[in-house]
């Protein structure tokens, strides 16, 4: 069984104003560190923190760990009149008011990327899955990549940004496209080609380290893993765990193939990019290319195609319930659907725009620490 790890990013939120805290006190950050433990990490902005999990061997380990982290974090922050929002964007975050974290790595990002970095007040769900040393990680990446928009559409949780609806179900992914080396990776034929790419970009001064490729999927620089980065942070822990499991199943399936990635042609990459557009713009309401013969389908049809492809692997891994969980997620709606419904309900009751957004934040606060 391949080992895995999960990273979640969180917004520290004022329970009175429902806004993102721009400069949490040292006491607040110390409480966060104590609540999370060894997995605590700073993020780009002072009002963001990250949990980087230990290495897991089974889903129940991830469930127990992240449920405990979220519970402890919510309880600790409540003592300061604060809460935690786990979502791709914060509906009431004013990006101009945010303060960067004073660490050399982040300061270098802000110096290099400038306003694009300063506007990137966003949170993601990242999943690392081990790839055996005998298997080419780029080949596995190529095999899995066409499915990335399916993972994205299930995770969408960023329909609001800077206090307004964006028209996107994942505005986070739209914002990511402003960065260099984000979104869909370049087309590498194998690991050797990937190393040539890194060497070239370092030689010409475009990047300073191997980890400066921030694509939606990438070989991790520090670990022998393939890292999923395209997915939005999920308020509902069950959604995050289901997506992590689906990615694990996809990687496990790819590693077992005789020649993974062999069918990842230029045409497949073109369709990947178009499907990603549909996913970030429309979420589960998009229309997706299911093959290169012109077959278009709904998110439900694409999920059925995934079940047909991966169900046997999931069962072998002890994850027979996975696709039932994903069907329920799709039927109930991803977080973006839920947030927009909450906003529309508040609007219909006569609430003004700020009050509508506060109700959305209240829902995210409750879900992020264990509510439904």
Automatic annotation (TrEMBL):
<dbReference type="InterPro" id="IPR050141">
    <property type="entry name" value="GCL_type2/YbdK_subfam"/>
</dbReference>
<dbReference type="InterPro" id="IPR014746">
    <property type="entry name" value="Gln_synth/guanido_kin_cat_dom"/>
</dbReference>
<comment type="similarity">
    <text>Belongs to the glutamate--cysteine ligase type 2 family. YbdK subfamily.</text>
</comment>
<dbReference type="InterPro" id="IPR011793">
    <property type="entry name" value="YbdK"/>
</dbReference>
<keyword id="KW-0547">Nucleotide-binding</keyword>
<keyword id="KW-0067">ATP-binding</keyword>
<dbReference type="InterPro" id="IPR006336">
    <property type="entry name" value="GCS2"/>
</dbReference>
<keyword id="KW-0436">Ligase</keyword>
<dbReference type="GO" id="GO:0005524">
    <property type="term" value="F:ATP binding"/>
</dbReference>
<dbReference type="Pfam" id="PF04107">
    <property type="entry name" value="GCS2"/>
</dbReference>
<dbReference type="GO" id="GO:0004357">
    <property type="term" value="F:glutamate-cysteine ligase activity"/>
</dbReference>
<comment type="function">
    <text>ATP-dependent carboxylate-amine ligase which exhibits weak glutamate--cysteine ligase activity.</text>
</comment>
<protein>
    <recommendedName>
        <fullName>Putative glutamate--cysteine ligase 2</fullName>
        <ecNumber>6.3.2.2</ecNumber>
    </recommendedName>
</protein>
